[in-house]
Amino acid sequence: MAEAIKLAKKGEGKVAPNPLVGCVIVKRGQIVGRGYHKEYGGPHAEVVALEQARHKARDSILYVTLEPCSHWGKTPPCTEQIVDAGVREVVIGMKDPNHEVNGFEVLKLRGLKTRIGMLEEECKKLNEPYEKHSKKGLPLVILKAGMTLDGKIATSTGMSKYITGKESLRMVHKLRSDTGAVMVGINTIIKDDPRLDTRFIKGIEPVKLVIDTNLRIPIHANVLRSPKRLIIACSSRANALKKKRLGEIGVRFIQTETKSNLVNLRKVMMEMAKMGHQSILLEGGSELNAEMLKNRLVDKVMLFSSPKILGDDGIGVVGKIGIKELDKVINVKETNVKRVGKDILVEGRLK
User: How far is CA 67 from CA 40, 41, 86, 281, in A?
Assistant: First the structure.
């Protein structure tokens, strides 16, 4: 199963809204087939592994990280293909949160020895975004920030390039590729004019989500170099002519009512989920980070601390969120600390 998990990770950033799945087929102690889900709409991991194993799949044991599908979708049910191949036993990492999938019971009814729950926690960690997307209709949101040791992301004048080192930047570009979507506010676009790309690695260019309530985005902004990879969340107050012109070059829009002079962030997240986005990397400024936290839309944090000090006149990672008592603080759980070049990365979850 550990080998199947490694295989599944190869599909990161390419399979959404489908899950990451890896499969290994073993016969007489030897691996005779390997497979993983490579891209959305492509063959499932089990099918790839079965095709590689061919006749050797008969009387074998099939290990798969996620419960095999049992319904018709873009591809035929994997359960039928497993049965037809003559597999003797199926070992499953975790149950599929999609209520349409019932592969575990189907395989048992078809007479195969079937077990579920091997390395379950590792398999669930692999598909956290898919599970949240399936159960709650929301993407998993990771708040990422590059900051000084005293928690500042920019100087008082807004300068922020580059607080952290090259190693951290490369890791962030990998995160952008893996999550598939990056989220910023319009102030970040106006002040920094970021590309939000993956130029430091060989990765997939993410979709850019810009929270721009009044559609203030400059026409020559770097994110408009790839207009078909840009989504702007705005309100009905946005300039209709500007919106039309941006739409004509491929920009997509999510329009909501305003809430505290900002678009409704929960509705924006719901719409992103409907578009198939399972995870989003939030690279916002202090105000957007604060609003996302207040709306309980952040699941994890990744904070890169550089060995520098800016002082109290710098801009903090999170703006005002109205906490006045210590027992009301937002607790970060399951924290992990590691070095990334000269920087320190602190990871943790909020839910």
Answer: 17, 18, 18, 27
The secondary structure of residue 52, as a DSSP letter, is: H
pLDDT digits 0-9 by tens, 244-281: 999 999 999 999 999 888 999 999 999 999 999 999 99
Q: State how far the Cα of 26 lies from the Cα of 343, in Å rounded to an integer.
A: 43
DSSP, collapsed to helix, strand or coil, labels residue 323 as coil
CA 108 to mean position of chain CA atoms: 33
pLDDT level of residue 71 (50, 70, 90 thresholds) = confident
CB 301 within 8 A of CB 157: no
Q: Global pTM?
A: 0.90
347 near 335, Cβ under 8 Å? Answer: yes
Which has the closest alpha carbon to 109: 76, 136, 70?
70
Closest by Cα among 275, 281, 236 to 255: 236
Strands 333-340 and 22-27: unpaired
H or E stretch at 46:
helix 45-53
168 with 308: CB under 8 angstroms?
no
Nearest residue to 23 (alpha-carbon basis) of 158, 124, 51: 51
Q: Tell me how far apart the alpha carbons of residues 215 and 234 are, in angstroms, rounded to a whole number.
A: 6
Give the SS3 label for residue 180. coil
Residues assigned a catalytic role: 46
Could you please report the per-residue DSSP string of 130-150?
HHHHHHHS--EEEEEEEEETT
Q: What is the pLDDT of residues 189-207, one digit of tens each?
A: 999 999 999 999 988 899 9
3-state secondary structure at position 349? strand
Written in H, E and C, the secondary structure of 218-286 is CCCCHHHHCHHHEEEEECCCCCHHHHHHHHHCCCEEEECCEECCEECHHHHHHHHHHCCCCEEEECCCH
